[in-house]
Amino acid sequence: MAKAKRQFRCKECEGISAKWMGKCPDCGAWNTLEEQVAEGATGARKVTPAAAVRLADVPMGSGGEVRVRTGIQELDNVLGGGLVAGSLVLIGGDPGVGKSTLLLAALDGFSRKGVPVMYASGEESLQQVRMRAERLGVQGDSLWLAAETDFGRIEAAVRAEQPRVAVIDSVQTVTSSEIGSVPGSVAQVREVAHRCMLLAKGTGVAILLVGHVTKTGELAGPKVLEHLVDTVLQFEGDPSSGLRVLRATKNRFGAVGELGMFEMTDGGLREVPDASARLLEERARGASGTAVTCAMEGSRALLAEVQALVGHPGPQIPARTCVGVDRSRVLMLCAVLQKAGLSMHDRDVFVNAAGGVRLVEPAADLGMLAAIASSRMDRTVPSDMALFGEVGLVGEVRATTHALPRLKEASRHGFSRVVAPARVAKDAPEGMNVVGVRSVREVLELLVDGN
Ligand code: TYD
Ligand code: MG
Predict the structure, then answer these.
(1) Which among 118, 133, 250, 392 could bridge 396 via Cys, Cβ 3.0 to 4.6 Å?
(2) pLDDT beyond 70 at 152
(3) Cβ proximity of 110 and 117 under 8 Å
(4) Same domain, 100 and 191
């Protein structure tokens, strides 16, 4: 077969050059030219028009997409109810977080139902995969393995064996011979993903593509692929606790923001269906600087602990360090507390969402504020109290969405008092002790009087 014609495209201005050059001749940027397979010169080619069909004439199919369930409830939920036939799913995450383990478990779920599946690994040998499978108790009757780094050969194997689901682990190690660049380069990663898309759409095989994310940059990682694939799942972990969180950041077949929770154990990944209970298990009681908030992750209410430490800085500028929470909101809350009479400008502030969750919605404000104020005043937040609500710039507490599921989750886990925006408290169901607050000052008074 004749080698496909190559060309070089500038990442900045999209300008095309026939040769690689250090400097883009179109926009003058340095080191921005990337290799790609040239599309045929449209001017010279006779163009057949795309087949346009009237919307009403397009057949609906049999009740929407065909889905296969993995049997791993947390994964199926995040996918929006199972894996859609012919879809391309990208699973991103740091190396070692457990992507291969999760996907092998998913393939096990399919294989047990007799669904033919294929696992192509460019990272591990057949023996290594077999040993891992053994440890995880994978039943491999309809699971086909290939240790291969050439995408063309993987594609041919998928076409020959016709599995319903194929895993390609990982996009960084598999290469397309059409492109001369090294494995893992942006051009390679993009080409492999593009060919996966064509393969999935052409054959109806659902393809799960693994992509490592580097801590520093996302170059050659999932970021350059997001627009190409149907679904992007991000697998994240808290190295200290073994907790793993899977979330959909893009999904053409379901809601984004859905969250699945797992725990890495010696016997593989274990599902954590009651995430609130797991997150609160190790909660420090009777200490200042911790508060429980009711967050929403996708459609699920989740109780999570926020921890804060407010300390005296050394001679350097006070630190504002945040893990799992939005730093700009913490800065805003510190400023609001300062105005409410607590001096914060001369203090170090550390805020952490325990258990590796990310509390980024404004409703987490009250929980963060209570944790910070509790540490600053050395007053404990009562252990039966949970808080949620958005804090505004003038110290007002504003209503948030999904009040009812948040209240129910708190009540289900035995929180007898929920501090919430006054508007929410008005409509609270009977029997629930909801303390409505209008301002940050009222929250601070509760902390002082609550013990
Ligand atoms: P892996 O799935 O290889 O990560 P990734 O594919 O995302 O790079 O998981 C690797 C880590 O998981 C490794 O540090 C060991 C741990 N692990 C367990 O703790 N228990 C297990 O049963 C397995 C298979 C892995
Ligand atoms: Mg792996």
Answers:
(1) 392
(2) yes
(3) yes
(4) yes
| Domain extent at residue 435 | 278-449
CA of 365 from ligand 1 middle (Å) equals 35
H helices of 137-208, where?
151-161, 186-203
Residue 54 lies in a domain: no
Q: Domain end: 213, 243, 273, which one?
A: 273
Residues with CB under 6 A from ligand 1: 93, 95-101, 132, 135-136, 264, 266-268
Could you tell me the pTM of the whole model?
0.76
| Nearest ligand 1 atom to alpha carbon 169 | 6
Best mutation site among 101, 241, 269 for ligand 1, i.e. most ligand atoms within 8 A of its Cβ?
101
Enter the DSSP assignment of 181.
S
- The b/e string for 92-125 (b: 16+ C-beta within 10 A; e otherwise) is bbeeebbbbbbbbbbbbbbbeeebbbbbbbbbbe
Q: Looking at 222, 250, 273, which one is the last position of a domain?
A: 273
Same domain, 33 and 136: no
Show Cβ contacts of residue 259 under 8 Å, excluding neighbours closer than 6 positions: 78, 245, 246, 247, 275, 297, 298, 300, 302
* List of residues 6+ apart from 237 with CB closer than 8 A: 93, 94, 97, 98, 243, 244, 245, 264, 356
pLDDT of residue 214: 59
Q: Is there a contact between 142 and 117 (Cβ–Cβ < 8 Å)? A: yes
Give the helix/strand (H/E) hosting 105.
helix 99-112
* Residue whose CA lies nearest to ligand 1 atom number 10: 96
Least-confidence region, from 76-85, 102-111, 292-301, 430-439: 292-301
Q: Which ligand is nearest to the CA of 93?
A: 1
Distance of CA 17 to the CA centre of its chain: 36
CB neighbours of residue 322 within 10 Å? 19
Distance 97 CA to ligand 1 centre (A): 6
Mean pLDDT of the 408-421 span = 94
**H/E run at residue 37:** strand 33-37
**CA-CA distances (angstroms) from residue 219 to 90, 255, 269?**
15, 26, 28
In a domain, residue 375? The reply is yes
